[in-house]
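Schema walkthrough. Field components (list of strings):
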Amino acid sequence: MKELQDLARKLLSEGTVKVVIGYEEGPRGARAAFITDPEQADPLIFDTRCVQNLAAYLNPRRKQIATLGKPAVVVKGCDARSVAGLIRENQIARDSVVIIAMQCGGVLENPDVAGELTSEAVSTRCGGCDVCEPKLFDHYIKSATAKTPPVNPKRTEQLAALAKMTPTERWNFWSEEFSRCIRCHACREACPMCFCVQCTAEKGTPLWIDAAATPRANRAWQTMRVLHQAGRCVDCLECERACPEHIPLGLLARYVADSVERRFEYKAGDDPSVPAPMGIYRTDDDEELIR
Amino acid sequence: MTQRFLSHADLTALVAELVAAKTRVIAPVRAKDDPEQLDYSPIQKLEEATFGTRLPRRSMKEFFLPVTEVLLRYQQTKEGVEIKATPTEAPPIVIFSATPCDASGLDVVDKVMSWDYQDELWFGRRKAATVVSFLCTAMDAVCFCTAVGLGPDSIQGSDVLLVPVEGGYLANVITPKGEALLKGKGKAEVPAGAEASAAAAQGEARKKVEANLPKIPAEFASWLAKNFDHPLWKTISLRCHGCGACASVCPTCHCFDIVDEHDSSTEGARRRNWDSCQTSKFTLHASGHNPRGSQNERFRQRIQHKFSIYPTKFGEILCTGCGRCARTCPGGMDLPTIIGELMTLAKTQPEGSSL
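Field assembly_structure (string):
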């Protein structure tokens, strides 16, 4: 931890950045910290409870953060993919942020219950992690204890169950889940990649999606959102953590991400120079429709 | 207020009787997706309910102010436009084992719903509902009901408050509605010692919550109003995403948006939907200007409205201290801690910031 705190102190006192966005011990577990004073860097921590994807604070819609000045952000390898996404989609410039990447051995599914990272306790998103050693960073802080995280079988089982369903069964499954949606759009607001100035959900002329939480509108909203996330979502689960109705939005996004991977051989990664399948136009595209 | 004694069998029979009479009975039930959690859901018999083990995930306001509701339907006809208003009378409903914080939330929101306009739909549902609350002993470190002047045994907004005692429940009958519900149920004679043991349980429950946050002083409201431009608002909500999940789970957040939505080219509905001041669109003007341009201003609004504007206007804090906002926040915003810090600031800077 001292290495991280020293680095934060150095970046702030040199004036390289105005704020270091990291994790601190909050009144109820780890939470985001915004360190602006080099003398105040001691609270910075990093452990298995640091679940939140802090890259969300780089999203240009977080105006309260932007006014603080140039940030440094503490990321896990998986979160670095969100930073890459924001760079890839021209929301932030690579040199507008200092990336402090932590070597990570997985985080907890439920950070309120601290404990060992067993296959039951580990976050579903850590399974098969290929970015425990991040590649996108300005500073890399290694860990002596981080190991490859165990795999939580929950997600694999859920995905397999979904894949087994007929399209009608799948439609019914999601219709049932979406019936709880209250259209608060917390999923969107918490998402690092939802940065549209005006969301389709709020287009009134013409009206694309009813504002009311009706089955029809809920399905339209959730389907629209997850399709806009195809090839962009990095499975950080911020949407699911924000959802006050506990809809398994992470599972939905992961299912779509897997489809993109299967069909386009593309996974939202941490190299901002690799374009996303839905973000490019090529005259030699295989698909006539697009060409 | 009168008291009665009910055995568990009496309660079971009461629920069965209500259900048989087609009264909708709502109680905390284990959540389908997470058996550790509770949701207020319809029950057919008492065994389906889980009493007092923990606070349900969401408040029960959706039974009084639905997430979305039709205010009127309109249809274009040859003669003009035909309008059908929604009936303002609601079918009977009994909320069983509500937490006192959720019950009092209804009473707090009544004030704004009857202020410049009597909200017929809200009061139609209020009139049709009987609220049986249950002494809360499931408090955790985020609860602060006593700080806002309520408590785990608060009777505000409840028609009956049940307190578990040996062999059954001591029922505090608070309103005529409560009286009607329990007429002839259980016994009018309360067993010896029940009252004392209930009082002891209530005292113990109160003490537990009181340890979390001191009572908010009356002058806090005016201190907040005076410090609308205090620099603290620039740093207090940095970690807030503005997702509004806090408002969705809050028993007192009651803001709504009214929209006309077409179901076909000739008919449609005017609906009212939940809304939240925590999202940027809430105050976005048609011109593109937003008077609350960043989350700092939006979070300030949340605090000012709950702890200054509402108490000044209606004499009550627009918060029941249930702590759900803190439990649900994906960004780790923690209202009891924030209020505690603000109270300390109010003490150390009674006149506010010298800016």
